[in-house]
Amino acid sequence: ETGVTQSPTHLIKTRGQQVTLRCSSQSGHNTVSWYQQALGQGPQFIFQYYREEENGRGNFPPRFSGLQFPNYSSELNVNALELDDSALYLCASSLMRQTYNSPLHFGNGTRLTVT
Amino acid sequence: TQLLEQSPQFLSIQEGENLTVYCNSSSVFSSLQWYRQEPGEGPVLLVTVVTGGEVKKLKRLTFQFGDARKDSSLHITAAQPGDTGLYLCAGVMNRDDKIIFGKGTRLHILP
User: pLDDT at residue A22 above 70?
Assistant: First the structure.
């Protein structure tokens, strides 16, 4: 069973640039959720994708967008980067829409630094 | 405002001591999950509690879900240095099954 993998592990960008983060979900999982974790904070829900469609969104601006592919892998795109976007971005996969019997399986995250 | 409040934010205790951390909300959840996160890694699920009043044990860790399904606690008996980490509670929302995290309790066990 292959776990959740994220790439790259670290990234440094300049304010105003755009970034794409990638996530391969655990085999057999069809739902991917993205979270932003600022230093010293808990993960904040960005959005979720289920069978290639957005299935809910947290309180993040439209410059945060995503995609899910037929193989259930996913991308998180952030445009017009701001300094406050510096954080650990976590991808989590699950077997179905998030329910109590489908916990999140997290990758190790991408550490994004915006200068 | 934070939907899930965790306390304390930080806790540093000696090996062998007992401790309890809390997760509180004014919202009702269909279930509640506890995760542990270590530096450089993603959170890893410890347990899910579903029924109000439910108690689950995982070796030296005891998890309890409040009767009203709004709060939870994690009790660790005889803490060990390997218990060090960030403990996150996460509530599964009734209305849409989204999972919302608290800010976490950072636990440090001194040898």
Answer: yes
